[in-house]
Design goal:
Length: 254
């Protein structure tokens, strides 16, 4: 997939019907500097950063208790939390998934499970768990592994038309669709959170310095966080170019 830097009037690929991302295609396009400048410009009325915005060295949210019913507790036994938001960045350990640094805390926030293919799942029912789960989706999708992309579509998307579309696309893809241009997460914003639903903004930066933001809508289902895709299979929404990280809590593993 290629795009000319002169084709600034070309249709935004993120809005094309049937533009499916088992997460990988969006990551690949964000990573292409020529493409990122074709994205819609960010909203000038971006939400302000929380007053206590911190860095990756800030304390993590402490796990607590919640009113989670026994039938919907974590499928792998991770503790839930009564926290409703994150005012600072969690103190995270990072590991590479594909080319993206991804947070990991298997005993507290997840992923609790990693299979022989490197597929990661099971995150805590907490704001930090939802954030880790969202970042996990982005990283798995950018891995370039068709096996991981199929697992992602099958296991980490909310069932429905969108999941069916993503699974169909993942089955049709062959070869690596991962990003050849390194990108890394630089910040996040939890737009809303309840123990059942979360909307999370992630900010990414390409190796050439361009920024983009995107939103993942998460749902707690079957004891883990899953992504709610659009009917065409698109898992990320609101993808826009941004000029800087204003409004985001800084958070990065690289």
């Amino acid at each position: 997939m290629s795009q000319s830097t002169e084709s600034t009037t070309e249709t935004n690929p993120f809005t094309k019907p049937g533009f499916i991302i088992a997460a990988a295609l969006v990551i690949a396009l964000i990573a292409a500097t020529a493409v990122i400048f074709l994205l819609p410009k960010g909203d000038s009325n971006a939400q302000p950063a929380p007053a206590a915005a911190g860095s990756s060295s800030a304390p993590a949210a402490s796990p607590g208790t919640s009113a989670t019913t026994a039938s919907n507790k974590s499928v792998c036994g991770l503790a839930s939390s009564s926290e409703k938001t994150l005012g600072t960045a969690p103190k995270s350990k990072w590991e590479l998934v594909g080319k993206i640094a991804t947070p990991t805390d298997p005993k507290t926030f997840g992923p609790r499970r990693t299979d022989e293919n490197g597929f990661r799942s099971c995150f805590a029912q907490s704001p930090t768990g939802a954030l880790y789960a969202a970042m996990n989706v982005a990283a798995l999708g950018s891995s370039g592994s068709s096996v991981l992309e199929r697992q992602l579509a099958e296991k980490l998307l909310v069932p429905g038309a969108g999941r069916d579309a993503a699974m169909k696309q993942a089955a049709a893809d062959s070869g690596s669709s991962g990003s050849s241009t390194p990108i890394q997460v630089r910040g996040f914003l939890i737009k809303s959170y309840t123990p059942e639903e979360a909307n999370i903004d992630l900010a990414f930066q390409t190796e050439k310095g361009a920024y983009a933001r995107l939103t993942l809508s998460m749902r707690w289902m079957g004891g883990d966080w899953k992504v709610k895709p659009a009917d065409d299979g698109t898992t990320f929404t609101g993808t826009t170019q941004i000029s800087d990280l204003s409004g985001f809590i800084l958070w990065s593993g690289v």
